[in-house]
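User: Quick sanity check before I run a bigger batch. Here is a single chain. Can you write out its predicted 3D structure?
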Amino acid sequence: MSYKVVVSDTKVMHGETRAAVLDAVDATVETIAAKEPEAVARAVDGADALIVDAGTQVTAEVIEAADSLKVVGRAGIGMDNIAVRAAVAAGVTVVNVPDYSVEEVSTHTFALMLACLRRIPTFDRSVKRGEWKWAVGQPIRRLAGSTVGLVAFGKLASRFAAKLRGFDIDVIAYDPYAPEYRMGDLGVESVTLETLLGDSDIVSLHAPLTDETRGMIDADALDRMHDDALLVNTARGGLVDETALYDALISGDLGGAGLDVRKPEPPGDSPLHDLDSVVCSPHVAWYSEESRVELTQTVAEDVIRVLRGEQPENPIDPETGWF
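Assistant: Done. Predicted structure follows.
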């Protein structure tokens, strides 16, 4: 039996691996550029499976329009772009890759933290202008002895916490869904969000984007943070109110920010880009050549399991909370 698989993801799915896996079930693969719901709904007409990245909107309307759809594969972790409840209600299985890029994202988070803390981009630009001035990066605080606060404590945050061990850093975390023993195993203290914001020298965001977390780092949250604190976001851009972030930075109420994710993406002409205190990367924390191959193989094999009537390894429960 031949299957039609629609793929709206050319960035993170490894082409040769995808072909090798899907060819095993005689799948016809159609790659589309569609991202908006109306275009996606048209593209999945007659499709058995849909594989998407974070930018493709799989709304309830898309699910309703796809009469033959059996499975949606999310090439990644976050599910905020997929109407999971509507899919499950329609008998469509949703799968993701829960271990995707844990090593890469935790490493990139560490890199952004250090780049902000040590003012690396500022020094780089200064030297390339022909200058040789240590003071252009003032003030710089010592990493050792600082407190890092993790907002959410899933696999990515846990791996980041493990990387912080050995740097003489106190690590605290806020996650209403994670058991305290999981934090304790890594020497991480469980605290309230208010305590985390008030006590942290560096706040690192690891939460998924949900109705509960959307815009959680707003003006009030930023006001609770130290004036020289750093904010690092490798989770979802929608967690942060960028207008409030800009205001906090230019008013001196925040020391700096490292941003890999934005709302929207790409962010366009943002005033944040004019600030030396902000270090940006283009939603690239996920990337390594190894992670692309692992991602593709994992999501494609799970999609095949569903098409064959087998139980997938990574099904999504519509009641799932934070990762």
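The radius of gyration is 21 Å.

User: Great, the batch can go ahead then.
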